[in-house]
Automatic annotation (TrEMBL):
GO terms for molecular function: phosphatase activity. InterPro entries: Folate-sensitive_fs_Fra10Ac1, Histidine_acid_phosphatase. PANTHER family: ACID PHOSPHATASE-RELATED, PROTEIN FRA10AC1. Pfam families: Fra10Ac1. This is FRA10A associated CGG repeat 1.
Length: 212
């Protein structure tokens, strides 16, 4: 009798399992127990932390990310922030490069061995207007003069052609054209150039101060 009851209960249990299996939809996920496994919870926590860190890094710009990585490196491996600061002693701007490699007049020898610094200076030189010069006459009593070519804004405004070519003078009346043999030393080499400039009477007097 006991054997028959056991057989009946096993049969009923099997039927219930089959009925439950028929009620499960193909896309339905298996039910989990009420208590989450410790390893599964730890993996989910790590995954969530990784998502948060990734989102935090993406929201930063490149410089902020760099500072964070440097800070984390120092925190984990030790050291000082001064060890990561680069020296700016040898830094140069485009203007510094142009000043170092500038030529008042470029010739074939100057263009023979061109590096990127010289090419940059030559590119700036090509944009200058070389019909009239702008003069610095502040040291005329010492017989020392400075000349440079005009740039685009000065050509548009008429500086050096329709107004006095002295950079400290804007006189427009009584202008006179002069041709000057400009002798100068450039990169240790003495050179000469014949330049033209337009000056007012007062600045013309300064230009010819030692020739009267």
């Amino acid at each position: 009798m006991a054997t028959g009851s056991k057989y009946l209960s096993d049969f009923v249990l099997q039927m219930r399992i089959e009925e439950d299996a028929l009620l499960i939809k193909p896309f339905q996920k298996a039910k989990q127990g009420s208590v989450v496994h410790r390893q599964f919870a730890a993996e989910e926590c790590d995954r969530e932390e990784a998502r948060k860190r990734r989102f935090h890094l993406i929201s930063m710009d490149a410089y902020e990310r760099h500072k964070k990585f440097v800070h984390d490196y120092i925190l984990y491996y030790g050291g000082k922030i001064e060890d990561f600061r680069r020296s700016g002693v040898n830094d140069k701007t485009d203007l510094d490069v142009i000043r170092e490699n500038h030529r008042f007049l470029w010739n074939e020898e100057d263009e023979a061995d061109m590096n990127w610094e010289k090419r940059l200076a030559k590119k700036y030189y090509d944009k200058l207007f070389k019909e009239y010069c702008i003069a610095d006459l502040s040291r005329y009593k010492e017989n020392k003069f400075g000349f440079r070519w005009r740039h685009e804004k000065e050509v548009i405004s008429g500086k050096g052609q329709f107004s006095c070519g002295n950079k400290h003078c804007d006189e427009t009346e009584g202008l006179k054209s002069w041709e000057v043999n400009f002798g100068y030393i450039e990169h240790g080499e003495k050179r000469n150039a014949l330049v033209k400039l337009r000056l007012c009477p007062e600045c013309s007097y300064k230009l010819n101060f030692h020739h009267r």
